Amino acid sequence: MAQIDAFFKLMNEQGASDLHMVSGSKPILRIRGDMETVKFDTLENDSLKAMLYEIVSEEKVKIFEETGDVDFGYEIPGLARYRGNLFMQKYGIGSVFREIPSDILTCEQLKLPKVITKLAGLPKGMVLVTGPTGSGKSTTLAAIVDEANKTRKDHILTVEDPIEFVHKSQNCIVNHREVGLHTKSFSAALRGALREDPDIILVGEMRDLETISLAMEAAMTGHLVFGTLHTLNASKTVDRVIEIFPANQQAQVRSTLADALKAVVSQTLFKRIDVKGRCAALEILICTPAVRNLIREGKTYQIPSAMQTGKKFGMQTLDDAILEHLEKGWISPEDAYTNCIEKGKFVKFLKKPPTDFTDA
Asked: Containing domain of residue 308, as a range?
């Protein structure tokens, strides 16, 4: 048993999502969004490095020492998987670990809208799940892929850095590929994927022009592609995909994206106030013919209005989702106000409306 495993067991017992191990500080757990210090000695660089190197492959250590940071995966059988990141900082080595549960929660268990479950049955196209780091994108995607794994008879191929949720083949064949371990890059894996007879491709992160371009190509050639982006809402996601391309290609990209994109799910995570735990507020954009025209014509600023009028298709804005959670008593008015888009809708729920200098 590795020395650091004791911290992972504590993390699991406390229900923490993240573990921070940084030279010059005590270990810290993120529990329900808050940072809580572990009663332990201040971590020294040399002892922490030895502890971390015990669970990191030689190849990943080499990359870390050359570049100053690296992502990797680690698993404790019977407990959980962990997505780790090593980095150098002022006082020495540092690391952050995110717990990836062994059990994959279903869409029903996550209380996701029914339209999310339907995304697993799409024959082709591109579905993007977006949100800031730590907003639960991977958990939502895992639930969708799990639904497809149970209800379809297809080949599912995932490309991640590192592998997070592990899906055992059920009705589908599931193959997991890790960037740096099984393939050189996301783009290299996607180029190879087109020759590997996949029906569903999950791209862990769409970071660059080449990856996004290949993902759209796969979606246009009859595959169902799921991917993630670090954007805050649906319209910004569409803008981000288009803006990553050179200006002289953007008109063509708008047309291609309008045809390829099936849905955008943007989520924000909230701390529950009624029970221990957290919940996600989802903004859902379904690409109806009207939405496709807005994308094609470069009128993405009208997408929020289209979501308001498209509720019968399962669409909802982030503010509507936040309001629903607030009315159920799941989240606090202060948290709702902080994360909403139109502040005016939520001021009435606050006991002491703040003076927001950004509104000046």
From this structure: 114-345
